Request: fold
Amino acid sequence: MIYLDNAATVKPSKNTVALAERILTEDFFNPSALYYPAIELKGEIENTRRDIADILKCKASEIYFTSCATESNNWVFSCGIKNKRGNVVISEGEHPSVYEAALNLKSKGVDVRVIPLTVNGTIDETKLCEAVDDNTALVSVIHVSNETGIVNQIEKLAAKVKNKNKNTFFHSDGVQAFCKVPLNLSGGNIDFYSISAHKIGGIKGAGALYLKSGVNISPLLYGGGQENRMRSGTENVLSVLSFATAIKDFRKPQDFKKVFDYAFDVLSMIPDSQINGLRTANSGYIISLGLKGIKAEVLQHLLCDKGIMIGLGSACSSKNNRNRTLESMRVNREFVEGNVRLSFSYENTFEEVKNAIGTISDTVGYLRSKIHG
Ligand code: PLP
Reply:
């Protein structure tokens, strides 16, 4: 099998698999217990918090574990705007876990302003700045698009937003950026940042929210007081610790850029195709490929039969046959219908990517020959 749907989830890394064996058989304790092995486990959770903080350049005490990034994003939208007053600004390219949370606020009467993307795939910066006013409570801009891999310069955007209204909270969904795109949260303009373990080689069931110290937000869950009383509930120790093993494995020496550049060059040569978004703004892990005259689902199934797994974009867009991100980028409808997403991990070798692209090219040719006779 050649797995090229790493934006959906990543195969657990080698150290993560070893961790699972240990936690499930030996170190299964509740980390709130007061006997020695449980205290050790609690210490490992704190070390993991530090590992994440080192990458994001923030304090360990600013990282709160959740069950997934969807929960982190929803926490910000449900508790992050005081008394539900003021307007909220998001981009048209947000993941459903932000977009739907914002629509929920809208249904409760909150003024939600949705900013379009440019043809390059980044948020329209001018329109974003115009939308922020004295009453803006929260701005949320995705860091790396899960559809196109395009990077928004969130540190710069957050500075601009704070310049217009210093009281506006700035959130970013960093799920597809964490470990891949450098970020320095110590700048202080970003108030919330969401990440997820299973997108970097950890295990499903752990996310985290960076919550800048001093920012006043209500706890998400009340109970036993875990996560500094902000998110009660017994920690999902295995998934939380898998953040650390995945981070460790991610740091291994790699030459992945060469593989990605090869994929980009060769895929762009498929006739009647286009890669969406500006190449120089790509994170280097996701390619959104539009193929004229092809039904993306049919291509996906044929490739699956040949042992190649690719994605179709977010589950939300594949369900309702719309793709908010690509539509906002004004991608032609015929390319949207034939749009597939190839997403990579550092474990994808040059050989397997080359083989997969060869098969994709051949299969596209075969499907077009069936249509055109
Ligand atoms: N945000 C982005 C950009 C994503 O790609 C995803 C996963 O698809 C999520 C949020 C949701 O993450 P989780 O699966 O941890 O809830």
Q: What stands out?
A: Residues 7, 68-70, 95, 97, 142, 146, 173, 175-176, 196, 207 surround pyridoxal-5'-phosphate (CB under 6 Å).
